[in-house]
Amino acid sequence: MPAPSGPVGINRVGVWGITPLSLLLVLGAVVLLYTLIAFWPAPAPAGTTGTPTTSEINYFGYKFSLSTEAQLFVVVALAGALGGMLHALRSLYWYVGNRDLRRSWILMYPILPLVGAVLGTIFYVVVRGGLLTTQTSTQDVNAYGFAAVSAIVGLFSEQAVGKLKEVFAALFAPAEKGSDHVAAAQTGTPVVSSVEPQAGPIGTNVIVVGANLANVTAIEFGGVSAQPTQTSDTQLTVTVPKGAASGEIALVSGDGRVSTGIQYTVTA
Which residues lie below 8 Å from residue 157, measured CB to CB, with a gap of 6+? Predict the structure, then answer.
């Protein structure tokens, strides 16, 4: 019997999970946007020169002073969080629209804004420190430019981490690989981290999660292959084909056949 294709099924999130999650993300986006505007540096008063050393902040009626340096840190962190929130909202409506939102991915959505805020702040420190460009002072800072970069970093957090790794890889010795090390994603070879579920009848929809999966053309179940119905670099969706037998799951791509070491059990 095929697995349910709607939002309520094995490990899928139903309407009572989708609704509060959507409302939480929308509310979070509104709060982040309001907070970013509230903390945005005010222009210098007419007739004055230079950048003020402190700013007066009015946040939901609560007024306080903040140094210009601290204000810039808050702005870039909020812009990065807003970029991460946009990433979360886009991902949510895509998976909900395709009726394939899984419970195991729920934690990702509240974490993405936090990741964006942290990465945005790191990029800000790296740029202000002159590691990627010439060193800048507070008087030379363009809040719009730093906020824009931070928001883009939050929106494309995976690519941002890859760029940082590429830039600074030459400065550090390669890390020692532990006994449970997984092949690096940049090698281009498909890597599987999980398969869900690992047992079911013919016609079951199976989710394969990993890296470098975009070029996978077929998934084998005990030697019987099936083409993926949905493909991305980190996730594949495939239906267990007729004639499939219990055995190891393998991936077929342009690089050849890749064993995953994960067993799938075909049930009656």
Answer: 83, 84, 87, 112, 115, 116, 119
What's the CA gap between 41 and 20, in Å, rounded? 34
Give phi and psi for 94, each to the nearest 5.
-70, -50
Q: Compute the half-sphere exposure of residue 110: CA atoms within 13 Å on the CB side of its CA.
A: 8
Q: How far is it between the farthest Cα atoms of the chain?
A: 82
User: What does the pLDDT look like over 1-35, one tens digit per residue?
Assistant: 344 333 344 577 888 888 999 999 999 999 999 99
For residue 7, the one-letter residue type is P
Burial of 253 from C-beta contacts in 10 A (0-12 / 13-18 / 19+): middle
Round to whole Å and give the CA distance between 197 and 202: 12
pLDDT in tens, 38-61: 999 877 666 555 556 788 888 888
Q: What does pTM read for this prediction?
A: 0.61
Residue 167 makes CB contacts below 8 A (sequence gap 6+) with 132
List, in sequence order, the alpha helices (H) in 102-241: 108-128, 143-155, 157-168
Element spanning 23, H or E: helix 15-39
- Give the integer Cα–Cα distance in Å for 54 and 50: 12
Residue labelled with tokens 């059990």: 265
List, as one string, the DSSP characters of 45-67: PTT--S--SEEEEEETTEEEEEE
What would the DSSP string read from start to end of 72-88?
Answer: HHHHHHHHHHHHHHHHH
